[in-house]
Amino acid sequence: MDKLFERHDSYLSYVPMEYVRELMGRIDWEERLVGIRGSKGVGKSTLMLQYIKQHYEADDRHVLYCSADMGYFATHTLVDTADRFVREGGKHLFIDEVHKYPDWSREVKEIYDLHRGLRVVVSGSSLIQLNDGQADLSRRMVMYDMAGLSFREFLHLYAQIDIASVTLDELLEAPNAFCTRVRGVCHPLEFFRRYLQFGFYPYFFESKATYLSRLENVVNYIIDVELTGYRALDVGNTRSMKALLQVISRLPPYEVDIAKLSRATAISRPTVLKYLRHLEEANLLRRVYTNLATITDLQKPDKLYMDNTNLLYLLSSTSPDVGTVRETFLAQQLASAKHIVEYAGYRKGDFRVDRDIVIEVGGAGKGFAQIAGCNRSFVAVDDTETASRGKIPLWAFGFLY
Q: What torsion do the CA atoms of 190, 196, 201, 204 make, to the nearest 10 degrees?
């Protein structure tokens, strides 16, 4: 245990406390078993360490943070570690990168069942499911999904501009009041393009010079290691998976042609559809359907986007299509704020949100022709700082979380 606490102390000494994500306040840390799931690099480890630093003294041994990929766990089990921690008075155990531990779910279930006075927090890849492995954790674990930075959070970290989040209903009902409030603090368009290119993953603030190479390493790690390890992707097919992402990054925001994707990547149609599902699970792309309630496992999506605009800029061999950038941003911000995002339908708008809101996306001159006759419809307009009747600046949707 001494070795684990030595690492625990070292991690805590370096964790930044200047900014804490709002997810911190939404997690019920008093639950007996909490899971934090998200893509590599979004800040799961930092959030766990920040909680410990906020709530425990530096030398408090009632709490322990460890990572399941430590060499220590080559000769020790999670169960044995939890047993000893509890015997020595431990109350709160944090296990990072839990998906890297073989048969993690069975041992976490055993810990949960054996130690009723112990609170356990685990973090893992966005690919992990509550029923992965032999144990069913769905009735035990409260799972939270962690997204990358919103435009609002990027503004705080990049320019020390602190603006409270807004709900979608508040934004749609009084867009001009909200935009006026933001413009009283900054000119959002000054920072918006930078966010679209490099503002989603927090490690940009660790090293701006190596951001794109680190992001490329994240994509390669997810495909080469996580998808092969947790979704049984054949190692020989990783190049095809990467080729599929490259092709998707160049697609304009029109309806999806799976046959064309299949020809462009030399991957069969059923395999393309399976890969798309896995890539969405891994938070590398987003599938959008006309009706989420009726989709089947291998149904063709109506639209395909990269998960976020940073990935789009990374993977596109040329400057990405501006319409794709706009729609990718809006879909990501809405989905990360826990809204239902669907395709509104041909000539009916770009997105239907929460079943009854229609949003069309475009440049400053975009009109209402496409959504004429749609109830509760709006246009998300790029390249403007002001709102007008039915038109809301695109950047304003970056303040939803």
A: -50
Q: Give dist(CA 43, CA 208) in Å, integer.
A: 16
Indicate the helix (H) or strand (E) that contains 54: helix 44-55
Distances (CA, A) of 28 to 31, 105, 111, 329: 6, 20, 19, 29
With CA atoms as reference, report the closest residue to 220 among 41, 68, 75, 74.
41
CB of 43 closer than 8 Å to CB of 202: yes
Q: What is the mean pLDDT of the chain?
A: 94
Identify the structural domains of the chain with CATH numbers, from first to last.
2-146 (3.40.50.300), 151-399 (no CATH)
Res. 252 pLDDT band, cuts 50 70 90: confident
Question: Strands across the sheet with 377-381, in order?
Answer: 341-343, 351-353, 357-362, 377-381, 391-393
Q: In one letter, which amino acid is 398? A: G
pLDDT in tens, 262-287: 998 889 999 999 999 999 999 999 99
Specify which residues 94 forms β-bridges with: 65, 121
The pair of three-digit structure tokens given for residue 173, joined into one six-digit string: 């009902």
Q: Which SS3 state, helix, strand or coil, does residue 379 take?
A: strand
380, 354 Cβ separation under 8 angstroms: no
Q: How confident is the model at residue 300 (pLDDT cuts 50, 70, 90)?
A: very high
HSE-CB of 120 using CA atoms within 13 angstroms: 28
Q: Does residue 133 surpass a pLDDT of 60? A: no
SS3 call for 144: strand
Coil, strand, or helix at residue 358?
strand
